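Bug #77: duplicate submission created two jobs. Keeping one. Sequence:
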Amino acid sequence: MQRRRFLYLLPAGIAVGLAGCGGVEPTPDDDWPPATPDDAEPAEPAVPTETPDPEEIPGADEYGTVVDLVAEGADDGGESSIVPLLEEHLGDDTLLFLDEGVYRMDETLVVDGVSELGIVGRDATIRPPAGWEHTLFSVRADRGLRVQGLTFDFDDAVGGRALQLSVGDDLEVVDVTIAGRFEAGPGPVRLDVPEADGAGVVEGLEIPDGGTFESDATGLYVGNRSHGDLTFRDCSIQGFPDNGLYADPPGGSMEVEGGYYANNGISNVRVKGGSTVRGVHVRCDGDHDDEFRNMRGIRANDFRARADADPVVVTGCRIELLDVTYSDGAIELTSRLAELVVEDTLVVVDADEVEGILAKSPDDELRDGEATPRIHCANVTVTGSAARRSAIRVDDRDGCTLEGLNVRQRGLERNGVEFRRSSGNTITDSFFDVTGDPVVLTDATADVDGIVSTHAPPFPFDRTAARSS
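Kept job's structure:
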């Protein structure tokens, strides 16, 4: 097979470099690429082994050049660094393959300007040295970057980042696991799709071990230079102090499909206007540091308040707040976003004084905008043993519609729906089994119809129209 020697036949527009363990982690604002230490010595390569049949390498038929790194001398026993071989064989339209084994990376690999690059493993584990707290892969690609089938073993590392990827279009991160508890930030993954017409997919990403409160680490961060669309499918992120999935960039839409997000601080899933969260399971059950802040389930936010922003849609989800440090709510609509839609979703709240759904007062920029600040809920169940406050609370938002609610909250002094400074709302075809009031209106109005309550409803219910079970 004809293979390019990347360092000698460097395609126009591509730069590659290494940052040593003592260097500064590359960020979008740093000079690119970072300087290579003069004393960086490549390790001796292992003895080459037989190359697998290209048909056995995942995705091999999609690339013009396929490089089996073990056949080229990579040490699959984890003793010698593979960074020199990665540097040697990088190129456009190239797949770099790591077969089963353990591979050492002791420097940051920095690549700028590559297109159609795949880094694919099959039961391959990448392990940084003990005490590591920098970035392993820092890649800027014009388009077409795939990272697939790799496990990053951070058990002996302090922290840092496994993947920092900026790709104009066609970004794929598939079946990647990042193991080990992070004791220092910034967090294991940062992704940017800087082109507004670009897109990316993250599927089967697992980050199970989280980070300490002191690390202030984020599980997966979509960076502030991202403007394209991203899909997160069947991912699992657990135990990070500063958001699990932080997908609230300046542009693009976020689609979160399936997956499990648990015991993260600030929010488990955070998305921007125009995004959809579908079939996701969120759970906070006490398996977290006691210092974690504001353990919200799904946070509907926006990078900045925009009067024309589309709503966040939460549909078919299960959100459980069983044990938290404290929380603004299982589902929160922040002041930066006008609209939220919640459909066919189960919310379980056992934590006292925590709302199941909370819509905060909108920023001034949203009040006279194109989108009316409001929420719409349909076929939503809020249950659990939470005491005090309300299952659903809406502040300073008019014209909200709640239909098909099933609210069963039996903790002390727990209300059903509470509107504050809000008019023109409707509640229809809903059931309330609460110890407080089914509906609370504070400087607010709401039309109610077809309401079933387990006790005599207070004003403003029509006592003849409301039915008591």
